[in-house]
Write a sequence for this structure.
C-alpha cells in the first residue's frame, strides 16, 4: 500500500460508515479494515469525515472577458481548488468567431500541462458554427474526451451570444454524438432594453445590474432553453440557475421525463439581490445576478427535493481595480465572482449545521457532476477509482479572508464568512496537495480528464 487512511467516517451519497481506505498507484485499492501498514503513509482520520474530492464543473480561468482577463490563471485557480477540496476543475474556454474548437482546447491543454495542480477537463463554449465546420469538429472533440459544450443566450456585444437556430442545431448535434449542451439562460434583448432605460434615467449603481436582469429575464431564458430541449428531445444542462420561475420550469420538465439537469452556485444560496445595495455592491456583480429571497428559498428547497442536480461555482474573479471601473456605471463592471475554494467548505458547513446531509453534499458536488459529465474515474470513494480524497474536520472553525485563500484575486465576496467544519487534507490521485491551510502540491501534477460520451 502507498497510503492508508484509517479510522475515518466515509461519506457516500447514500451511506455513512466507518472504514479504512488503502491506496496504490493513485487508485483506491481497497476499503475495509486491518490493512498492513508497512511502508505506507498512514493518515489517522479519527473523528474526521472522509469524502470524495469535489468536481467544480463551472469555472472561467484566465478568461478574456469584460475588457480584461479573469484573475485566476490555470495555476492559481487549480491551486485554490485543491485547498478547497476540489480535485477536478472544469474550465470553459470560449471559441471566438472563425476559431476551431480542437485548436482552442489543445492550446488550453498545453497550458494546463505545466500549470494545473489538480485534474482538469473542458467544456467548450461555442459562439459560431463556422458554416457548419464546428458541427463536424464536435464529434472529434467528443472522441478526445470533450463531451459537453456551452452556449450563451447573452453577451451579445461581446460576440458570445448564440441565436435560437444555432442553439437548436447544437442541441440536435449533441444528441446525435452523445454530448451535452450547457446553457447560460437569460434574455439578451430585455437586458439591453432595461440597461438603455436605466442609463437614460441616470440609474447606474450596481442595484440596476440586478434590476436590468431580474427574475423574469432569467426565467424567459430558462423556459426557452427547456422548450427547445424538450421539443428536440435533446438533453440539456442549465448552468448557474438563480431564479424560482425557471427552476420550477426545469423541475416540471424533469417530472415529465425530460433529461434536464440543473446547476446552482453557492453565491445564490448565500446572498440575495440586497447585496447590490451595499457600498461594495459592484464586487457581487455576476450574471445572472443574485435574486430575491423567494428564489433563494426555492433553490434550497429544490436541493432537498432533487430539483437541483449539481453545485458548481462559476468562479470568475476580477481584481478590485477592475470592479471599480463600474463604480459609477454598473455596465462597466466585469461580471463574475470568486468561489472555487469556498464551494465544498460552504456546502459542508451547511451540512454540519443540519441544513442538508453530508451525503447530499457529496452527491451535488462530486458524484452527480462526475456522472452527468462522464468522469468515470471520479466522484466516489470506490475501489478502482482515482484516490481523490478530502479529509474534513467537522470541529474546525474557519473564517474566510482573502489573505488565507490560495487564488490570485485581491478581494472575495466570501470575506468574513464563518464556517464550522473545514477540510484539513486533500489528496489528488493519492498525492497530498493540501494540508491545514497550506497548498503542498505542485503545478503540472494535474492531468487531463478524458471523459466518456453518452453513447
Ligand atoms: O458573471 C459571470 N457569471 N461571469 C462569467 C461568465 C458566465 O456568464 O458564466
Ligand atoms: Zn454564465
Ligand atoms: Zn460561467
Amino acid at each position: 500500500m502507498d497510503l492508508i487512511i484509517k479510522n475515518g467516517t466515509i461519506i457516500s451519497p447514500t451511506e455513512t460508515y466507518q472504514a479504512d481506505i488503502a491506496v496504490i498507484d493513485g487508485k483506491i485499492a481497497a476499503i475495509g479494515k486491518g490493512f498492513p501498514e508497512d511502508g505506507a503513509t498512514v493518515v489517522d482520520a479519527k473523528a474526521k469525515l472522509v469524502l470524495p474530492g469535489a468536481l467544480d464543473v463551472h469555472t472561467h480561468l484566465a478568461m478574456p472577458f469584460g475588457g480584461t482577463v479573469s484573475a485566476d490563471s490555470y495555476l492559481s485557480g487549480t491551486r485554490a481548488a485543491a485547498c478547497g477540496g476540489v480535485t477536478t476543475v472544469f474550465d470553459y474556454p470560449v471559441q471566438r468567431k472563425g476559431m476551431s474548437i480542437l485548436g482552442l482546447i489543445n492550446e488550453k491543454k498545453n497550458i494546463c500541462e505545466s500549470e494545473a495542480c489538480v485534474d482538469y477537463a473542458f467544456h467548450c463554449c461555442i459562439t459560431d458554427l463556422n458554416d457548419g465546420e464546428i458541427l463536424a469538429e464536435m464529434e472529434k472533440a467528443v472522441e478526445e474526451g470533450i463531451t459537453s459544450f456551452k452556449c450563451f443566450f447573452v453577451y451579445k456585444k461581446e460576440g458570445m451570444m448564440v441565436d435560437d437556430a444555432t442553439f437548436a442545431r447544437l442541441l440536435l448535434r449533441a444528441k446525435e454524438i452523445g454530448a451535452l449542451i450547457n446553457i447560460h439562460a437569460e434574455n439578451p434583448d430585455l437586458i439591453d432594453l432595461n440597461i438603455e432605460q436605466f442609463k437614460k434615467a441616470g440609474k447606474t449603481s450596481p442595484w440596476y445590474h440586478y434590476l436590468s436582469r431580474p427574475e423574469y429575464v432569467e426565467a424567459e431564458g430558462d423556459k426557452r432553453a427547456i422548450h427547445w430541449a424538450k421539443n428536440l428531445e435533446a438533453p440539456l444542462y442549465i448552468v448557474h440557475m438563480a431564479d424560482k420561475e425557471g427552476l420550477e420550469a426545469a423541475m416540471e420538465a424533469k417530472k415529465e421525463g425530460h433529461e434536464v439537469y440543473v446547476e446552482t452556485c453557492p453565491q445564490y444560496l448565500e446572498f440575495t439581490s440586497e447585496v447590490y445595495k451595499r457600498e461594495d455592491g459592484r464586487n457581487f456583480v455576476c450574471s445572472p445576478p443574485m435574486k430575491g429571497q423567494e428564489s433563494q428559498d426555492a433553490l434550497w428547497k429544490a436541493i432537498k427535493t432533487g430539483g437541483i442536480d449539481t453545485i458548481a461555482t462559476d468562479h470568475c474573479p476580477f481584481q478590485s481595480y477592475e470592479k471599480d471601473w463600474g463604480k459609477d456605471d454598473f455596465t462597466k463592471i466585469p461580471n463574475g465572482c470568486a468561489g472555487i475554494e469556498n464551494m465544498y467548505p460552504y456546502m459542508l458547513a451547511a451540512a454540519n449545521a443540519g441544513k442538508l446531509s453530508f451525503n447530499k453534499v457529496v452527491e451535488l458536488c462530486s458524484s452527480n457532476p462526475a456522472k452527468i459529465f462522464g468522469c468515470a474515474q471520479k466522484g466516489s470513494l470506490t475501489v478502482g477509482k482515482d484516490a481523490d480524497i478530502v479529509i474534513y474536520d467537522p470541529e474546525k472553525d474557519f473564517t474566510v479572508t482573502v489573505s488565507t485563500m490560495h487564488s490570485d484575486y485581491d478581494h472575495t465576496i466570501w470575506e468574513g464568512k464563518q464556517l464550522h467544519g473545514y477540510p484539513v487534507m486533500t489528496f489528488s490521485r493519492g498525492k497530498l496537495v493540501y494540508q491545514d491551510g497550506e497548498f503542498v502540491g505542485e503545478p503540472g501534477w494535474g492531468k487531463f480528464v478524458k471523459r466518456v460520451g453518452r453513447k
